[in-house]
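FORM 7B - TANDEM STRUCTURE REPORT

SECTION 1: FIRST PROTEIN
SEQUENCE AND TOKENS:
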Amino acid sequence: MSKLLKYRESLNLTQEELAAKSGISIRTIQRIEAGTEPKGYTLRALAKALHIKETELLKSPVNEVVHYQLIKLINLSSLPFIIFPPMNIFAPLLIMYFKKENNLMVKQIASLQILWTLVSAILFFLSPFLNRIFSIDFPFILIVAATACIINICIIILNAISIDRQGRMCIFLNFSFL
């Protein structure tokens, strides 16, 4: 029995009623109940309509072994490339790909680095304008770059410690770029 079918029946909803409530077609609901895993908008709309978390509709991995030491290594692989931001994304992705460690925590590590790189780049490019607006005599861009590096180091180290001690990330996103 699929998870969607179980939740739908627990709320005494027909497929037609769930389709109307979620805005998802009846055919899509039938496919998901037959075994297709929902993704993206469909997953969000169904979870919202059923008043459950999105993860509750996803299939549970059967006996998935989590290699915490490898995940910690993937997380720490960003550290040597703090000064060259694109590599702090590619290093974990390369290790993930070659070691075939493709789980949610590793995707979160890469997504966190992607988001932090984007935020840092935006702040980095805005810093000359802020320097001019506030009439600061020293190069504000250096402060922004140093602060971005220090914050990223803290994120990586905090997550490594948390993965080591608790088996989960301390700082994570509620979404994934991957």
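SECTION 2: SECOND PROTEIN
SEQUENCE AND TOKENS:
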Amino acid sequence: MNRAQLITASLDDNFSLSRVPAQWLMKSEGMNPARRQQWCAGRALLAEALSVFSGCDNLPAMQISAQGKPYFADASLPHFSLSHSKHHLQLLLCPAGEDGGDVEQIRPRRRYLDVARAAFSDIECQWLVEQADPQTAFWQLWCLREAWLKQQGGSVWQMGRIRLEPGHQRFTAESSADCRLWFAADGNVMRALALPAGVSEVEEYKVDAASGGFLRQVSLPWARFSPS
């Protein structure tokens, strides 16, 4: 119970929809092609992960929390969080409690400093402009916030609910007692996780493009943020 699983993938990987019930696939029929690809790949990845780690033949039934966050109706199954950025897809599974994950491909963003001044604290903005690459620093702060908000069931419009001290790897948030933030740079991709305080290990896997199975990966150099 003190570990979580992180599975990374590409939207171009070989995803089988055989474990996704037909009624689930029907929900994607009205989506535009790009959104449908993301949606189907995420559900296929989730179904395969539940088969590998929990022995489920098909994607189990889900419910939606009061905060709008999906979870499995069967309480014995792990909490999960899906995220994508460009062609990057990641899934976080955590049996120990609520989780949240975010992946961000580093990319140009117009007026990112204006966004930072509107969404981040003065301490964060000062840290950001002092970095060698302020735009990359922007994505780090954004990614950490997204992970926390997904754990809490919040939206991007609630960025102000958390304040980061990146220089000291600390944060202040409304509900932070049972949360630790994990952050790692993976090439030109940033990954952030929000996990229960008791989780001490993240097992990392990558989808094998040829078989669709999972390959165990060497752990990323995670930096951990604790509540102030």
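SECTION 3: OBSERVATIONS ON SECOND PROTEIN
The mean pLDDT is 93.
Residues 3-13+79-227 form a domain with the Ribosomal Protein L22; Chain A fold (CATH 3.90.470.20).

SECTION 4: SIGNATURE
Preparer initials: ____
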